[in-house]
Write a structure and sequence with these properties.
Blueprint: E1 4-10, E2 16-22, E3 34-39, H1 41-55, H2 59-62, E4 67-73, H3 82-88, H4 106-125, E5 132-137, H5 139-150, E6 157-161, H6 167-176, E7 186-192, H7 214-228, E8 234-240, H8 248-260
Parallel strand pairs: 3-4, 3-5, 5-6, 6-7, 7-8
Antiparallel strand pairs: 1-2, 2-4
Helix pairs in contact: 1-8
């Protein structure tokens, strides 16, 4: 695939990552390119690049401008590295489980993204640091919400697909309910309807998701954040019919790109 690279890198803390990179084959516009940072790059980077390149051919129709794609993954041939992502994408647990060594690395990972990787990408392409967008799914969606809550100005826009809000007994939801959000964040939350079928549905919930209230938690997050968001915030929520925990990712990513790449001052929609 043209204009693509991948390389392995160690963070300052010594943790190895694999970075996937793609950039447009058109000249950079005067105001520069945006950059979309995608978690679980081993699994979903190709999906992001294909969607960007096809839709950026006609931005006046699709709302998607050419952008740099950055996938963050791990040095493995598997599509996911379960132990690594469990650590990187989760905030520290509260209460007695707070010293769990298998989770709780979200702040260190956010430091790597914003303090090491993003400046490297931005220097190479002469990008503006305030035109970053972040997309994550499942535990990655939980991390996106954590980043939006704790460092809302780190990215210009956020998208969380099927966020694992069940983690640590829904502690993240309690955290954002404690105080108003002072920053006018741009955030999209999405989930597949089959992740939590209704009581009238003949379809069973996906294995392991029955008690995690994926749709209800995601909806409650969007509604709670809307109530506490400051002036100028743009928080959207989507439930995608007939999509499950895995199939929702390409759909949610496709819906997220026009939102993540909307130019400053674009007309808002609250669908």
């Amino acid at each position: 695939m043209p204009n693509t690279e991948r390389w392995d890198i160690r963070s300052r803390s010594g943790r190895p990552y694999r970075v996937f990179l793609a950039w447009p084959d058109t000249p950079m516009p005067r105001d520069g390119w945006d950059a979309v940072y995608l978690l679980d790059g081993n699994a979903w980077f190709g999906t992001l690049v294909d969607s960007l390149r096809m839709r950026a051919r006609r931005p006046e129709v699709t709302g998607v401008r050419p952008a740099v794609a950055v996938g963050i993954g791990y040095p493995t041939d598997d599509v996911v590295d379960v132990p690594r992502r469990l650590y990187d994408f989760t905030p520290p647990r509260t209460g007695e489980a707070g010293n769990d060594r298998e989770t709780g690395g979200a702040e260190a990972f956010l430091d790597f993204l914003t303090g090491e990787l993003a400046p490297m990408i931005e220097a190479r392409f002469r990008l503006s640091g305030q035109r970053r967008a972040l997309f994550g799914h499942s535990l990655g969606g939980l991390f996106v919400l954590h980043a939006a809550l704790t460092r809302p100005s780190a990215f210009a826009a956020y998208a969380a697909a099927s966020p694992s809000l069940w983690f640590d007994d829904r502690a993240l939801g309690r955290a954002w309910g404690a105080a108003p959000l002072s920053h006018a964040i741009r955030l999209m939350i999405a989930v597949g309807a089959l992740e939590q079928p209704s009581a009238r549905s003949a379809l069973p919930a996906e294995g392991g998701l029955e008690d995690r209230a994926m749709v209800a938690n995601a909806r409650a997050a969007a509604e709670g954040l809307r109530r506490r968001a400051g002036t100028g915030a743009d928080i959207r929520f989507h439930v995608f019919e007939d999509e499950n925990h895995a199939s929702v990712v390409p759909v949610a990513l496709g819906r997220a790109l026009p939102f993540l790449l909307a130019p400053p001052g674009a007309t808002r929609c609250t669908v």
